[in-house]
Write a structure and sequence with these properties.
This protein has two domains: 98 residues, Carboxypeptidase-like, regulatory domain (Immunoglobulin-like, Sandwich); 112 residues. Helix content is 43%, strand content 22%. It has seven helices and seven strands, in the order αβββββββαααααα. β5 and β6 form a beta hairpin. α2 runs antiparallel to α3, α4 packs antiparallel against α5 and α4 crosses α6. The N and C termini lie far apart (102 Å). 21% of the residues are buried.
Length: 225
């Protein structure tokens, strides 16, 4: 009988134990892999337990949970420029989380700087992954950003557009039409930019293939009246 009493007391004590949940994470832009600051992160089940990411995209949340074991913490992640997501992190665990930007509505007006940042980020991410697959969101953002550009004369930005024209080739997508339209706005400057790009061939480039594509672009620009 005495043993049963001890067992009952022990079970009662264990069931009343609290678990200190602690989770950490880093939030990055899915395209640029850069940290995102001021992202709202909160506990789904206790929304008053919340925090914001710092300049390095880091966050940490703590919670006291009843039970014999510490369950994973479900968190909600929100930022005005990114898609809201929900994810789980094991107690005392750490997780790297990628956020995708919201699809830009056609009615939104992009600044030149915003458009070029979008274009550069998507292309750099595409090169890094070395895949021919691209998300529908990124295709949409690429097209929308290119269409927002009325004129490009900056040497580095022109080189970026020329490289995208030649090398950004996801499955079932092409933005050559949009880039060609931009290059025509300042045809002389664009022609010189293509010639300059042809002179500075990358070490890894196949001279026959890349050279032919750049020549085709140059001929199109030179013969367009």
């Amino acid at each position: 009988m005495r043993q049963l009493v001890y067992i009952f007391i022990a079970l009662t004590y264990l069931s009343s134990c609290d678990c200190n949940q602690n989770v950490k994470g880093t939030i990055l832009d899915s395209n640029t892999k850069e940290p995102i600051e001021n992202v709202d992160v909160y506990n789904k089940n206790k929304t008053w337990i919340k925090t914001k990411t710092d300049k390095k995209g880091h966050f940490e949340l703590s919670n006291v949970s009843g039970g014999l074991t510490c369950p994973p913490m479900t968190i909600i992640i929100e930022h005005k420029e990114y898609k809201k997501i929900e994810t789980e992190i094991e107690s005392c665990g750490q997780k790297e989380i990628l956020l995708s930007k919201k699809i830009i509505e056609q009615k939104d007006t992009l600044t030149y700087k915003q458009a070029m940042k979008n274009i550069r980020g998507i292309f750099e991410n595409y090169k890094t992954n070395e895949e021919s697959i691209e998300s529908e969101d990124n295709k949409y953002i690429m097209t929308t950003s290119l269409n927002s550009l009325q004129s490009v004369t900056d040497k580095n930005d022109l080189e970026l557009l020329i490289n995208i024209w030649n090398y950004y080739d996801p499955t079932d997508y092409s933005c050559r039409k949009e880039i060609y339209k931009i290059l025509l706005q300042n045809k002389t400057i664009s022609i010189n930019a293509v010639k300059d790009r042809m002179k500075h061939k990358m070490n890894w480039e196949n001279e026959d293939l890349s050279g032919t594509e750049f020549k085709n672009l140059l001929e199109q620009l030179e013969h367009k009246k």
